[in-house]
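Batch job 17 of 40 flagged for manual review because the log was empty.
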Amino acid sequence: MKRTMKRTFLLLAITLLTVTGAQAQMPQFGNQTSEATARKFTLNLTDDGAAQMVCFLPKAPTGKAIVGVPGGGYSMLSNTHEGTLAHGWLNEQGIAYFVVNYRLPEGDRTKPISDVEQGFRIVRDSAEAWGINPHDVGIMGFSAGGHLSSVISTHSPFDVRPDFSILFYPVISMDERVSHKWSCVNFLGEEGQKDPKLVREFSSDKVVRRHLTPPAIIISASDDRLVPFVTNGLEYYKAMRNAGNECAMYVYPTGDHGFGFGPWFKYHDQMLTDLGNWLKARQTPKTDAIRVACIGNSITDGHGIDMATAYGYPAELQKILGDKYWVKNFGVSGRTMLNKGDQPYMNEMAWQDAQAFRPDIVIIKLGTNDSKPQNWQHAAEFGQDLEQMLTTLCPELAQPAKKTKKAKNKSQASNLKPQIFLCTPIPAFKTTWNINDSVIVNGIIPIQQEVANKYGLKIIDLHTLFANDGDKMLTDGIHPDGKGARRLAEIIAGEINR
């Protein structure tokens, strides 16, 4: 969305805040507003008002916000007990709540997707006016709305992707044999159901991305007869856990399907306690935190480290730097700096996300996989591909007047926006996967040093600094273990704080 349109939405939001007693135009459960609610109003998400967002702002905001997505099998909207009814409890917790009454697909799945994405844009654009931390906006979907929420969590661009997901008895698979048939048919269409690639693409458990898919909590009943939990919610949990992403799962003994926030649910109070504790336990970055993007291959990704999201080197770096910083892992295993390599990093969603993150500091650790013979045959292009990455991250570098001869101290390098640290590869203690330490030492590192000097960047010589840490490696001799990840984080944190 263009910035002018964003400003329009923000002005509209501020105007609506001055209107007291504004009522949503969609059906409400008892049409009641909680005592914890400061403002209630409705915004159109489409010009014709076919999609709307009902907004509930709390009297005592904590900065957290949730975008609600009702269920209904993509044929209707259950927007009371799976929508507006949740506002009271959420507002009491200081959480702003926004219920998206999205358009039904009717053969065009882009309609509900775009409506929810539009809701996210408005919430984040209006965050300051509404007392919201734009980095703490989650999504909460029920049944088919849970599927739509999982699609937004796995497919949508970084700026409209949730920071966390709450999925009530979600439809996850688009294979009608193991899911809710009519949700599948209504979302994909009759023809779409015949396309295996489309079915897979929108079966959210198949497209969970390591580090990039937001943390999730799944809430279901064991006796759900409409949306089989074992082939839907459980599969999403397994995909998240296998990727090392944060995910919790609460399965209550009974309740069948569709209990939502209804007080008739036998485990209603326990469910609220469980959900509340999960929300409180989430660590949220401060709005003014210094953003650190960790770009790299499997060593950044945390290959071989169980729950690398919590124990890989970027996670350890976060622990060392503290809450004044916000460190995100954009590592992808097997990737190369070379655009003609077998798996170029700059072709990845992680690369797009790293840019959209708008980092203040970037740690680039690529080159290990470039040393493989099939990749290093393109050695002549390594320098220019590295420069492409640098100038994309920091366009100022592309302007000759902005270049410095050599970064002699922190003050020179820190003038760049973002500040970029270029890391040499750690030693390849073994030749696993044809990774060649001689190529790293004699080919890759000299090019990195030349480019760093050209642009006045700080280079972190991990190859030298990690040379005596061979005991902190996995058996493959390429990837650090948990202790090695901590050691990498300590080295990098020391350079950041130098």
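Reviewer: the log was empty due to a logging misconfiguration, but the result itself is present. Residues 144 and 211 are 25 Å apart (CA to CA). Unflagging and moving on to job 18.
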